[in-house]
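Reopening this ticket.

The earlier resolution said the output was attached, but the attachment link was broken on my side. Pasting everything inline this time so it's all in one place.
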Amino acid sequence: MIKNFKFKIKNSIIVLLIFVLAITLRLYGLNWDSGQHLHPDERFLTMVTNDIKLPTSIFEYFDNKISPLNPYNYPSYQFFVYGTFPVFITKYLSVLFNLDNYENIVLVGRSLSVIFDSLNIFLLYFLAQKLFSKKSKLVFLPSILYATTVLPIQLSHFYAVDTFLSTFILATFIFMVYDKFYFAAITFGLALACKISALYFAPIIGLFLLLNFIKNKKYFALIRLSVICALLSFVVFHLFQPYIFDGVFKINSQFIDNIKQLQSMSTPSIYFPPSIQWLSKTKLLFPLQNIFFWGLGIPLSLGFVILTIINFRKIFRYKYVALAFIWVVFLILYQGSTLTPTMRYFLPIYPFILFVFGYLSKFIKQTVYFILIIVFHFIYGFSFLNIYSHNHARVDASDWIYQNISPQSTITNEYWDDPLPLPIQNFFSNIYHQVTLSPYDSDTPQKIDKLYSQIDSADYIIMSSNRLWASIPLVPKLYPFTSKYYQDLFSGKINYSKILEINSYPGFNLPFIKNCYYFGPTNMPHNSSWFVKINCLYPGIYFRDDTAEEAFSVYDHPKVLIFRNNK
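Inline output:
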């Protein structure tokens, strides 16, 4: 008994240390944009959270028409499709700690994102205990891998709903594994209140219940439990996302209209700038590419794929592993086949991938292969912290602009991207003549004439990210003139010269070397080899992620380019 107690204490200390590691990696560089609010979704949620007010009574809370917590009661937020649980808890804590203002709410939201995502460390440990002996070191493997996986680290730095959703889905699965179905119903209701897409997990819940009861032919018990759990989830969902309803059961027509509008934005026939990047991408293949190379990383992805192929049948030896694997495959196939399979939509499968990998890893016969996978996974995970180790590229670029571009100069920025320079200390962008270019507009001779007229009269072209130039040239049939404009600009055929490039990549800053060594491909039309050695602000060795999905880089580590007119 004493040995058992000591072992429990030892395991508790280890998992607590992994949790501390996860928290540390996610808190590192939390104010990554120096208070500039450079993530558009986060910026919107911050504005909503700042404007809504806490209700004075429970009756006011549930009254859609008068509740000060209801975003629809504010003219600026007639389009709102986010879950409200993360917004409500962020608002409440901001008020509680006297941080209820635009500058601090975003940090409260990011901190909560860190906490919720880090809770997965404990959840994965509890899940792994169902497979491994408590004396096995593999019981900690899913937790330590999740702590150091890139996409969860990145998304924890944002005030958004994805980390909340992912944690509640994993909690739902674990409660089912431990036969705590009522608790599972509660956490699933909370998942729905974070994001309505939690419904995708419902088939897994149904399959779990079916497998759990059909073996013993307890059909009545299955029906009774299913009804009670469904009602409990509905009550929790209604409690924390009340404004999606108009009454008890009727869905708010405004929410339905918002969802339809959101879906239409992903239709190729509808013009919506952020969707341009998807037009050149292959469904299923591109999201898999993002998971493999960037979200999970090559070492772990390669290990997972190889182990899955070799040990495919063994996955179905255990119900929990099989269901976790089915969830991974289901979400990849479904979400990956949609028109906008952005990386954050796949976050809910990451803990499950690591759980399945933890199980499959016990079949690795060569220890050296296992060690190599883990070591290189750690290297990639820690390399990502580089982007939070120094100023945001737009902040550095803004400082450079104020120091090197004369006031009253004419500078251009691109529509739908954050304009530079940002306000820094006592410097403001109004000291320059600013012109907005509109490359996203439909390609016509008139548009191109205007574009060239604007740049002819400008002194500098400023691109605050790769959002436009990395997506438009990939659809030359839609943008023949604009694609040529970018190609000519980057190749020097237009009377402009590139004078500044500031980027931030996963890697390691090494002050004892003089140059930056970049590995990996980059975007069209910005052509270069797989390996480049150049002068830069932060010398070191870096892995270029230019070919990843747009949202992976343009928020927290964009590439800023500045061109000067040679006139």
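Reporter confirms the inline version is readable. Residues 390-565 form one domain. The chain has 22 helices and nine strands.
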